[in-house]
Amino acid sequence: MSSKESFTQISPSEFFYRNRDLAGFSNPTRSLYTAVREFVENSLDACDQNGILPDVHMSIKAVDVEKPDPKQYVLSVKDNGPGIESKHVPLAFGTVLYGSKFGLKQARGMFGLGATMAILYGQITTNKPLIVKSSADGKIQDEYEMLLDIQKNKPVILKHETKEVTKTGLSVSIRLEGDYSKAGTKIRDYVYQTSLITPYATITFDDPKGDKYRYTKVVRTMPPSPTIIRPHPHGIDVETIRRMLLDTNYQIPAVDDNMISKVRKELGLANKNLSHSEIMDKTQKKWKSLTRPVRIVMALMSFLKMDFEKLSKTTIEEIDIGNKKLTYWDFGESQSVSVDMDPESFYYKQLANTVQGETLTSFLTKRFQRVGPTTALKFAEFAKFKPEHRIGTMTNQELVKLTDALQSFDDFLAPDPSCLAPLGESPLEKGMERFFEPDFLAVVQRGASAYSGFPFIIEMGIAYGGKITSRGIKVYRFANRIPLLYDEGSDVVLKVVNDTDWSRYKVKGDPPLVIVSHICSTRVPYKTVGKENVADRPEIERELKLALLSVSRKLSSFMSKRGQAEAAIKRKNLYSKYIPLIAQFCTELAGKKKEPDYKKMIVEEHTVEEKI
Amino acid sequence: MKKKSKKKILDDKQNILADLLRKHGTQIYDDLDKGNFPKFSIPSRSVSNIVYDKKLRQYILGTNMAVRSSRNTSQLRSFTQLMWLAFFANRLTKEKKSSTLRDVYYSSQAFEIDFEDQGESDNIIVDLEAVLTKPRESFHVFPEERSSVFGDLTIEYTVPGYEGKKMNLSDHPDGYAIGPSLTTSELLETSAEVVIAVEKGGLFTRFIEEQVDKKFKAIIVDTGGQAPRSTRTLLKRLHDELSLPVVILTDGDVYGEHIAMVIKSGSANAAHLRELTVPDAKWVGVWATDIEKYKLPTIPMTESDIKRCYDLQKDPRYQEGIWKKELEVFLKIKRKAELEAFSKYGLTNITDKYLPHKLELAKSL
After folding, report:
1. Pick the CATH number of B192-363 from 3.20.20.140, 3.40.1360.10, 3.30.9.10, 3.40.50.720
2. Which one of A85, A108, A112, B111 is separated from A8 by 20 to 30 angstroms, measured CA to CA?
3. A603 → chain B, closest CA residue
4. What digits encode the pLDDT tens for the residues B290-304?
5. Is B176 a residue of the active site?
6. How far is B142 from chain A (nearest CA, A)?
7. Could you tell me if the ipTM is greater than 0.95?
């Protein structure tokens, strides 16, 4: 018996539809919460990236108030961000994997997938369209009503209208199945904590019960925005290297009609039909202005000795630099043809460069951050590669060897933290001051550090007393300005806090103590796909410990001052209570009539207290 | 008939106590007047500071002292409590009033002295005993346990309302309770030549019925189990003031043996006091060796009895003589016998046979 399986390709939408649990859409409670997060974080990211102080307004309304949960809700998020250009709107919201977040820098979301997932989830639970209103120029607003074609991964536009507005911004509204009675607490916590870590934003939330939550901005300066940077050698794996090699610059371009018209354009030949030699003359004159793919096509043409007409009927099969042979398939003749290449020719060198790729040293200095020629040479020696070894000719085994060496070479500079966007001590302090109104507050921002080639920065704040009503230590965890609400127990921050001997910092019992911890990194090492707890990497744990130590010491000195003051008052109270009694008893014991003059003893203690 | 008048001894004792209290009070008064925080030293009563004194033949406190200062806020409260107790004791002795541990606890509340519970006030009482090295009975705080005494002894009361009144302790066939008034009375005269302390009320009554007091010229004391401190004080006074030998009869078990030992040489709990022991007192029975000798009906020792034996073997006082020997025999036979066991041979067997033997034997111990 033979098994028959049919293999079919599925679209990304189809894939996510089938695996929606992975993205946090497993049930109505979790889905509502995840959808809120995705839209709010998209809005904040968009504003951050464009230097706009965010105003984000979120609302959740029940479609039918009377029905019991789970039921349908309308979720709307509106921001004052840059908006999205009209022509991108359908693709941005109607296709999975259409995003703008594929660079290496710190952002809240990774690829912008979540919002589309939320839309997808909304559509499959309610079959209602999504409504997007966007204005990128602050004059015209486009309103789209559309559905996703899941199988084709394409948007289906139901309605498109425009109207005049005065501000840029984006507003998204979806209908989805949710359970607010269960998700409400988490969503409110999320909004509260997001406002805490985003003190430069105004965030409002109107909940289905009619309650309104308003958090207005406390600072009017944005943290400096991060820059996109090249990867660090320690953070690389074999697959990443392979992708870097396959980058378009290094591929042999397909010589199709598109390419030919591009070549014509760059050579300024338009529709003229020139002979081969005429074309090559033109090429030499224009060489310096040509783009890389065109240069390669022209190098090939120099050996093929064809005009464009003929070229369009061939496919390059092999470029054998070692044997100096070029093989192509001729459609017209339906046969494979080989021609020799002159190794002395200018074009041969061009081709060799492209096919074999750059030398190792040039690859290292150009494609990685903070690697100079000296380090590159040192590395080549360390990895036992020749510095001029061509990357393109490396075998799989050599690539693995290269990757291992990149990860274990210790002399690379630490990763460049300019791609990080920590909040900053002052905004964090102001945010915490507003939220907790404590008696004591200390914040610290640690210097940049790195784990496995990914830079990270720890920020931490500690607040004590005042209007903090919680009994026991409450930890607010953030990663890349996102609150982490689930799976608290297994998080490295909790581990560090719990490992601390608080009595050393004069904190006893169940103190009204709040700790805010913020990890910024291009890649936060989450323990699980749910992205709710941070794994205990030793480098991160160490930085967290140092950060906690730094703020705890300040707390300790505050506590001892307060302790001294409290003790002085307590002492004075005790003395004023007991010394007169002692005086009374000893007077009778000693058989005296007048009590001893003890009053100055109680007064003296009073002055001691004032000194503190 | 011997006549022994010991008048004025009690008055002297009261004066010594009053002087001691005034001395401490004055020192603290002066400190306060100069603006200094008063403090005083209390012998440490921790286990590490309790040592056995071979000369005195009792446990005493070592040389470690704990300073209690009114400057230290964690000691201020107990300092004040101690001061109050001294003040209260001073009033009690001056007014010749008696009090109990429980009374002290409640009396404190009239002075805003916040004892958390009676345990705390009891503790402070022991502190004062240690500072003054006087038992609490000397400052008129008496235990509530009552034991009894019977025999030809004439006393004179000193308590208010009874001053000068005399009484013979053989007048009442149930005996007399050893209470504050009896403990503080003066011991005037007696015809007795020996004091017999018995562990049990039942035997005490039998002895009175069988006129042991007359037959053996004895004062009979019922200790009611472990002898209360007032009883031990009385035994000591009978021995010291009237020069009477003291013999002790207990059940034939390890607890009985230790009751005798406490009368003789005190307990670790009262190591801070020196006036509670009768080092010359003699334990005459029931010994472990008597069980076999008199063929007494026995009951098996319990596990806690056996454990107690092993504990006592570590005590320095059980390292010699009958104390050591009897303990070993108890452990060997693992059986014990009560005083009532003699009833097997008739109700008067114990007074007719056993007691004469033992009193005779006591002279040679």
Report:
1. 3.40.1360.10
2. A112
3. B35
4. 998 999 999 999 988
5. no
6. 21
7. no
